[in-house]
Design brief:
Blueprint (H helix, E strand, L loop, with lengths): L24 E2 L4 E2 L2 H13 L1 H9 L9 H6 L7
Length: 79
Amino acid sequence: MIVIADGDVIANDLDSKGSVIPLGYDRYGQQQYANKDFILNCVEYLVDDNNLIEARNREVKMRLLDKAQLIEKKNFGSS
């Protein structure tokens, strides 16, 4: 799953003549951003069956926190 906070990352704008501006082009700053590459990479990542299976089969080891350090540093950083 990929979560993107702004849905406009995949929206094309229109110029004053009504023609489509390329995806990721900032007409005010006159810059081309890599929105298209980002979206294509996201879709490729989600569709790639081999990497998805590898990610599902990966083991994540949970490590316990050191209780002595927790007690020692529990008020660290608070004013």
